[in-house]
Amino acid sequence: MTITYYHAEPLANSLKSMIPLKEKGIAYTSTYVDLHKFEQHSDWFKAINPEGQVPVLDHAGTIITHTTVINEYLEDVFPDQQPESGPLRPTDPAGAARMRYWNKFVDEHVMNHVSMHGWHRLVGVIARNVENGEFEKLMEHVPLPDQRKKWMQARSGFSDADLALATEKIEYALNKVEAQLGETPYLAGTHFTLADINFYSHCGMMVERMFPDLEVAKHFPRMVKWRDIVTARPAVADALSSEDRTAPGLRTWSGDR
Amino acid sequence: MAEDILYHGEPNGPSLSVLAALAESGLDIECRHIDLLKGARHTLHDAQETLASDMAVEGEGPILLKDGETMSEAVFLAQYFDEAAGSCGLQPKDAYLHWEMMMWCRQVNERLSPAVAYLGNLACSQAPIAALAEEEFAAITRSIFSDDLRQRWQDLRDDVVDAARREDSEAKVRQFVQRVEDKLADGRVWLMGDFSIADLETFAWLRPMTELEADAFTSAPLCRSWMDRLEQRPCVQSALAKAVTENPKRAFAPGPEINRWG
């Protein structure tokens, strides 16, 4: 059963399904999709995922998309391949439900706010650099209307009010995580699960670099300790050291302003 | 150990889908009707301030109180019932079909349910919330943990209507009806082939729209007959029998809302 994982840099969505592959020791072929060259909107990639989005898991010809659901799919298909710390999806029904609340919270109330800042910084740089006319032509290749809107908006930039609101939501999420980590060592309880992988990939790993004004180390010490524990996991370290072709001038998404 | 209790509102939206999933699972869990529009969900006896109530991504859906812990979110509760019952058939066993079902439910949660909740609350619950006495309303909003959810209550009370959001919501309902129609085009009886949570979750949110957005269904005969089949299914009948008002299709309380920018 061959697996190919189509992904961009080890960050956010692309990292989120790469970590479980590594944690579970699943052998896969890595195919890098260059977002800076709009490769996700190219014909070869849209033939694989008509939505034109990374990452994609090709499992022996079956195409699986959307990271939270990819990760549960991996649990369904490889239930016995688990890290020493325990199953990435709790095996008791209540534990699985707890993991799913966190995933949903991250997907709907964290990811998009961090992503807005990310798009504003990185994508804005790319999009503004594309010459007029050229950009419109590229937009014709973006299959999802919502995604097209995002690109157009990223090009013109988000308003300060939108960005400030997004920062506020991120702070709210950090407070929630900090409180939870006062109760349990990991988000969904005593073990490292897909919920931790989700928050780490979309926020935890880069929030301190991205938002120095939030004084993360000072206000969220438990989150920082948890982040360092997650970063130190061999599988996570392995994923983080995978391909990163981000042009240095564009390393703004997860870095400084 | 305390007994598990499912607190639910009128059988509409998330309360309908969860009650039907419970009936389908055959689990013996006590159901208690509460008035969601009086904020009763936020002041449950014995409920600790736990994760689920604090998340409130779904809005005013049902809550399962299990050993003092609150559990919420209709799809996750349905999955929980299925898993706790040792697989009662609400989730496909095949990994790919399971993925497809969860993707579908996510689309319902991200597109359909915020749209239905927005339209339904404006049409049915804005006036009752605006009519609450100042003190009663303040007591409700004080009891809500989530800032987002509290704001949705406040917006309804203040009758804040965003024309673009209303239009977007109407479009999303029409698109979803079409999505169901397309899915059923190959002659299948249920959305995922076999009956699953996807049927319950989609039906529960579309059912109230048959009155409020009736036009959306006119050119969707397959969707309409699929809804008839669901209406007749014993688990749905059992859920609808828990209604205390004449028309539960009009029972709404502030529901899910997600970031719509992309």
UniProtKB/TrEMBL annotation, chain B:
Lineage of the species this protein comes from: Bacteria, Pseudomonadati, Pseudomonadota, Alphaproteobacteria, Sphingomonadales
Name assigned to this protein: Glutathione S-transferase family protein
Keywords: Transferase
Alphabetized Gene3D superfamilies for the sequence: 1.20.1050.10, Glutaredoxin (3.40.30.10)
Residue ranges constituting the GST N-terminal domain according to the UniProt record: 2-89
KW Transferase (keyword) present: yes
Every GST C-terminal domain range: 94-252
Annotated GO MF terms: transferase activity
Classification via PROSITE patterns: GST_CTER, GST_NTER
Annotated source species: Altericroceibacterium endophyticum
InterPro entries per record: Glutathione-S-Trfase_C-like (IPR010987), Glutathione-S-Trfase_C_sf (IPR036282), Glutathione_S-Trfase_N (IPR004045), GST_C (IPR004046), Thioredoxin-like_sf (IPR036249)
Record's keyword annotation contains Endoplasmic reticulum: no
